[in-house]
């Protein structure tokens, strides 16, 4: 017989970062407003307007070739955050009882088309590199990974609003 903390437990021990997040979130109580879809929808609207305004600014200098693709990292991070906001807004809609696969598909498709619209919008401004497949794939990857991270974190943040399996 083995001795240990998780010997009789059927589930494996939680990963270290997830355990830290679980402990921190257990001490924090979300305000009631954060449990409604409206603030998340408004935050996503602000996210979209900010994206539109940032991509509509003409570049001051022509883009320089970079060794490290900072632009792709920024696209990935921005759409990663957008995926979290849109996922929370859709999950908290009490009238929308959708499965996780449907939620992933809706969020990824909407953000992919948002990224394509952003690239098209950039193509109309001087010194902007619009219609860039690399930017669009960074947007897609950010949305894809953002929805899956939201799925992992959702039971910790919104335990009273489970999505259907």
């Amino acid at each position: 017989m083995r001795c240990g903390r998780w010997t009789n437990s059927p589930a494996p021990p939680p990963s270290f970062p997830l355990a830290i997040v679980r402990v921190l979130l257990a001490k924090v109580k979300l305000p009631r407003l954060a449990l409604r879809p409206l603030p998340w929808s408004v935050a996503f609207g602000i996210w979209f307007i900010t994206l539109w305004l940032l991509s509509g600014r003409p570049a001051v200098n022509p883009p320089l070739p970079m060794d490290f693709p900072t632009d792709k990292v920024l696209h990935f991070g921005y759409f990663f955050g957008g995926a979290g906001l849109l996922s929370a807004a859709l999950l908290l809609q009490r009238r929308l009882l959708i499965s996780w696969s449907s939620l992933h598909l809706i969020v990824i498709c909407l953000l992919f088309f948002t990224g394509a619209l952003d690239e098209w919008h950039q193509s109309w401004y001087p010194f902007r590199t619009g219609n860039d497949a690399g930017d669009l794939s960074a947007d897609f990857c950010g949305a894809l990974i953002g929805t899956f991270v939201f799925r992992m974190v959702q039971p910790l943040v919104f335990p009273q609003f489970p999505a259907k399996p």
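The chain has a mean pLDDT of 81. The chain is about 60% helix and 0% strand.
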